[in-house]
Write a structure and sequence with these properties.
The protein has helices spanning about 1-15, 20-25, 45-60, 130-145; strands at about 30-35, 40-45, 65-70, 80, 85-90, 95-100, 105-110, 150-160, 160-170, 175-180, 190. Helix content is about 25%, strand content about 35%. It has a 9-stranded antiparallel sheet, with helices on both faces. A two-stranded antiparallel ribbon has the order 2-4. The chain folds into 2 domains: about 1-110, no CATH class; about 130-190. It is built from 4 helices and 11 strands; from the N terminus they run ααββαβββββαββββ. By secondary structure, the chain is α+β, with helices and mostly antiparallel strands. It is globular, with a radius of gyration of 16 Å.
Length: about 190
């Protein structure tokens, strides 16, 4: 839920607030708006590569804090979304860079302060979101999707390590399933009903 609030705030900061309001907010533009894909739906690999490049240009020591898509851009079985939200943190600058890729357009906004608990990621951490979604569907997600549930995907630090989280949500029903995978290897961790 906190990720959705952050994503909504970032979207408002980047595209929804008038210039006068944005000018009063702490932080600033971390990159110029840039088209990263001619398609509105962008696959995770493309979105992440573009976001990481911009985060490293912003601060060379930038590390991943959270990766995911927002409810504004549901994810499809191919691992594509119209709205990715990726958060990076610079330990040296003590600043957070929130990067949104909406309809193929990337915007970045930095804010002072920490980004929360940071995942412990290897340089080659697991990035095949399409496979994560397929395995989560096989662990019970497919039956829920047949009932109208939609998957959401996020990579972040948990209390027991760093994980890819696939949650199934419904507009009128309680969440029914969370499937987790090791963020570094992609190995299935557990399914919680």
């Amino acid at each position: 839920m906190q990720v959705l609030r952050i994503a909504l705030l970032a979207s408002l900061i980047l595209v929804g607030f008038p210039g006068a309001v944005r000018a009063q907010m702490p932080g600033g533009e971390a990159c110029k708006a840039e088209k990263v894909s001619p398609q509105p739906k962008v696959d995770f690999q493309t979105a992440f590569a573009a976001a990481e490049k911009r985060a490293k240009a912003w601060q060379a020591d930038a590390v991943v804090a959270r990766l995911g898509h927002t409810s504004l851009g549901p994810i499809d079985a191919e691992g594509r979304s119209t709205n990715w939200h990726m958060v990076f943190y610079s330990p040296g600058a003590k600043q957070t860079d929130m990067i949104t890729i909406a309809n193929g357009m990337m915007t970045c906004w930095w804010t002072p302060g920490p980004a929360g608990r940071l995942p412990q990621l290897k340089p080659d951490f697991y990035k095949d979101v399409k496979k994560v979604l397929a395995e989560a569907a096989a662990k019970g997600g497919a039956a829920l999707m047949a009932e109208g549930y939609l998957p959401t995907v996020e990579m972040s630090a948990g209390t027991q390590g760093s994980f890819w989280y696939v949650n199934y949500t419904h507009p009128e029903k309680r969440a029914a399933l969370q499937v987790t995978f090791d963020a570094n290897t992609g190995a299935f961790n557990k399914a919680i009903k």
